[in-house]
Specification:
- The complex is a heterodimer of chains A (about 290) and B (about 325).
- Chain A has about 290 residues and is an all-alpha fold.
- Chain A contains 11 helices and no strands.
- Chain B is an all-alpha fold and about 325 residues long.
- The longest helix of chain B has about 35 residues.
- Classes of the chains: A mainly alpha (about 290), B mainly alpha (about 325).
């Protein structure tokens, strides 16, 4: 159907890109806040001031204080730092595991069946449930949250990589490289891997978002990072107890989470349009041939 | 067709095996000795040894693993350390709130998501479409527990329309039960509805480009008949799959939402078990959820098959 005239199509692309730009700005702001946290935090996130407990937002405490008088602005800002670290580390970890499993599974047929059944098994657990169970035996700490969430997203990356490898290994350039006697490892690393990266990178933004959400949820439930460490989830967990007296404990970290996730989603959608034209077809409703 | 059916059903078995193994391994990931952790810091060495024996932790790992498989085949999930009774009993007792919560949430998600998706597709690229999709994107960016907290703040604390938290069981009457689940289900279902709206829209757009839609328009059918009678039937199928796949998100979300609203369901059960290191309960709940998820997806696949005769698997 050619009802989408070139002019509106062009307009839509521009609009999408501008929305993606908004997403990128939100992400950059979060990264900046994370990097500058000690400078812009104004207070120590752990500093107690029981005299000023549950104080509403003022010039001194921009986002008020919590039940032991800690500055919420500082805790949200340092929470941003924690979220960025957890998000980044989970992406790296799941990429490392997922790319290795995906390459091996897609390239070596006998391994494929075993590896993919294991991945299926892992994907049978809702992510947060698997993470909760792992946290139960690992114990609460930042590193363990990263490990638990990283393991959750390995199968998702592995599946995408495997799918691309299955296509790429049949291409003439891989065939040519193999015919020339290039060792498997180099074929995989130099010819196969780079060509299956773009869908993985797109997925990376969504995994980042899911990891930020996952950390917040785990900490909110009390099974994530230890309660004294500033984290969005930890502030929200306190906020739940004082919803009536101190709504600022919920509203500010809540806004921080929403801004961050919205930014990542917008940025991810834009990146997908840019890197993965096939997926764009699905998103805009054009049948991929 | 028959071979596909058999294939699909049999494919569940290796998944179940991995699920059973993973739930076993999870608990043995723990650094140190689970028995001494369970017994607590004040326990005497004899007590720890007795507990270790009681839990079968003094056997070699493979023996423990096979004992676990054997028990699972008999439907025995072991005994809770803290509650001192069978895990299956504890799970059955906590099933009602979680089942009701996820069912209500799914219903809400479908009632909002499907119409929003259809309307967006019908008025593709108009302001209606763009605002619905914008809302869907915002919906996807709100964590459900945050939405729950905000709803408590607005409807419970400020407006005082609904109870801030707590659960009234079905025994307390249908209406009080539904009232206590209203906010939890909405906060769980809204996020889901955003996903459903997106999928319904895109599959609807796909179908609207089909030849037979062109044909029915050409023969002069009213646009309403084209969209709701001819297109919807085929477009709804991917939506069904999404409902199956997103069951995982839903149950995962229910665990968190139950904490927000203090609902005594499976989520509260597993979280309190984690805080008390009640490993058999954690294992049991995780296993039940994973098995249910696998079976739901199997069911969705089979329904899919009967709904869309065009699908012919080898």
């Amino acid at each position: 159907m050619s009802d989408a005239a070139p002019r509106t199509r062009w307009l839509r692309l521009l609009l999408r890109r501008r929305i993606a730009l908004l997403g990128a700005i939100l992400v950059v702001v979060d990264v900046l806040v994370a990097v500058l946290a000690p400078l812009i935090g104004r207070w120590e996130p752990q500093r107690l001031d029981v005299q000023a407990r549950l104080a509403p937002p003022t010039a001194a405490h921009w986002m008020g204080t919590d039940d032991v008088g800690r500055d919420v602005w500082s805790r949200v800002v340092h929470g941003t730092r924690l979220s960025m670290v957890v998000g980044g580390a989970v992406v790296l970890l799941s990429f490392a595991g997922g790319i290795v499993c995906g390459l091996l599974g897609g390239y070596y047929r006998p391994l494929d069946n075993v590896l993919m059944r294991i991945m299926d098994g892992f994907m049978a657990f809702p992510g947060i449930i698997l993470a909760i169970a792992m946290m139960a035996s690992l114990g609460p700490s930042v590193v363990n949250v990263i490990v638990a969430l990283g393991v959750v997203y390995v199968p998702r990356v592995a599946r995408i990589v495997r799918g691309s490898v299955l296509v790429i290994r049949e291409t003439p350039y891989v065939e040519a490289a193999l015919a020339l006697g290039v060792p498997d490892l180099i074929v995989l690393g130099r010819h196969v891997l780079p060509n299956c990266l773009s869908p993985v990178i797109v997925q990376g933004t969504f995994i980042f978002a899911a990891a930020v959400l996952g950390e917040a949820a785990l900490s909110f439930l009390g099974v994530g990072v230890p309660p004294q460490i500033p984290s969005w989830g930890n502030v929200l967990a306190e906020g739940r107890l004082y919803l009536q007296q101190a709504p600022w404990l919920t509203l500010f970290p809540g806004a921080a989470i929403m801004g961050c996730i919205l930014g990542l989603n917008l940025f991810g959608d834009g990146l997908r349009d840019l890197l993965d034209p096939k997926m764009q077809g699905i998103a805009t409703g054009v049948r991929p041939s | 067709m028959q071979t596909y059916l058999l294939h699909r059903v049999l494919a569940v078995l290796p998944v179940m095996l991995v699920v059973a193994t993973v739930t076993f391994v999870l608990i043995h990931l723990a650094p140190g000795d689970p028995a001494s952790i369970i017994a607590g810091p004040d326990a005497t060495p004899e007590n720890v040894a007795r507990l270790r024996h009681q839990l079968g932790l003094d056997e070699p790992l493979p023996a423990q693993l096979f004992r676990w498989y054997g028990r699972l085949l008999r439907g025995d999930l072991g005994d809770s350390i803290f509650l001192r009774r069978p895990v299956t009993e504890a799970i059955v007792e906590r099933l009602e709130p979680t089942l009701l919560l996820t069912s209500w949430a799914t219903l809400i998600a479908v009632l909002i998501g499907v119409p929003a998706g259809i309307v967006s597709a019908r008025y593709h690229n108009t302001a209606v479409d763009q605002s619905f999709m914008g809302l869907a994107l915002i919906g996807l960016s709100i964590p459900n527990f945050l939405l729950g907290l905000l709803m408590i703040l607005v409807f419970g604390v400020w407006l005082r329309w609904l109870p801030v938290a707590g659960y009234v069981s079905l025994d307390g009457g249908l209406w009080p039960n539904a009232r206590s689940l209203l906010m939890p289900s909405v906060s769980l279902g809204l996020v889901q509805s955003a996903l459903i709206a997106r999928i319904t829209r895109s599959s609807m757009l796909d179908v609207l480009r089909e030849q037979y839609i062109l044909a029915s328009r050409a023969k002069g059918l009213a646009e309403r008949a084209v969209v709701y009678k001819h297109a919807l039937k085929n477009a709804i199928i991917p939506t069904l799959t999404v409902i199956g796949i997103t069951f995982a998100i839903l149950v995962g979300g229910a665990v968190v939402i139950e904490t927000v609203f203090n609902i005594p369901g499976l989520g509260r059960l597993i979280i309190s078990a984690v805080l008390r290191r009640d490993y058999p309960v954690i294992q049991g709940v995780v296993l039940i959820i994973a098995v249910t998820y696998t079976l739901i997806n199997l069911a969705v696949d089979l329904v899919y098959l009967t709904l869309d005769p065009r699908i012919r698997y080898r």
